[in-house]
Amino acid sequence: MSQTTTEVLVGAGVLAIAIAFGTYMAQSAGMSFGTTQGYPLTASFRSIEGITVGSDVRLAGVKVGTVSDIALNSETYRAETTVTIDQGVQIPDDSAIVISSEGLLGGNFVEISPGASPFFFASGDEILDTQGAVSLISLLMKFVSGDGK
After folding, report:
1. Of all residues in the chain, what percent are helix, strand and coil, respectively (each to 5)?
2. Residue spans per domain, the chain
3. Rama region for 71: left / alpha / beta (φ>0; ψ in -120 to 50; rest)
4. DSSP 3-state assignment of 107?
């Protein structure tokens, strides 16, 4: 083999290894490269601090969907949020949706607290029982200032 052929083969091997490593890292991080099958639900929050498009939606600690859209309602000044729930996961229609935190230093995620209704949300329905994000800085400031009413 000539030196040029050897260089091309080594370059192709390095490129193949780099692509395989990149694919592995993306899958480990939970990234997906296709359209996920699911159905949309909407919810209106007072505050969605720490939530972005792509944030996890969890039920009992298990990821069951993602945040797919966030927009500000200019009339109510609330965050109109669309979440996409994985196909096959049925959410009772009296469930609540809450912005939760993984801890003091962790990120925020959307948590669904299931209700007990025998009926389920359909595609495009709105979850009415919502609770926005709680600002830890505001809570600490109230505690420090003694205004903990």
Report:
1. 25, 35, 40
2. 1-34, 38-141
3. beta
4. coil
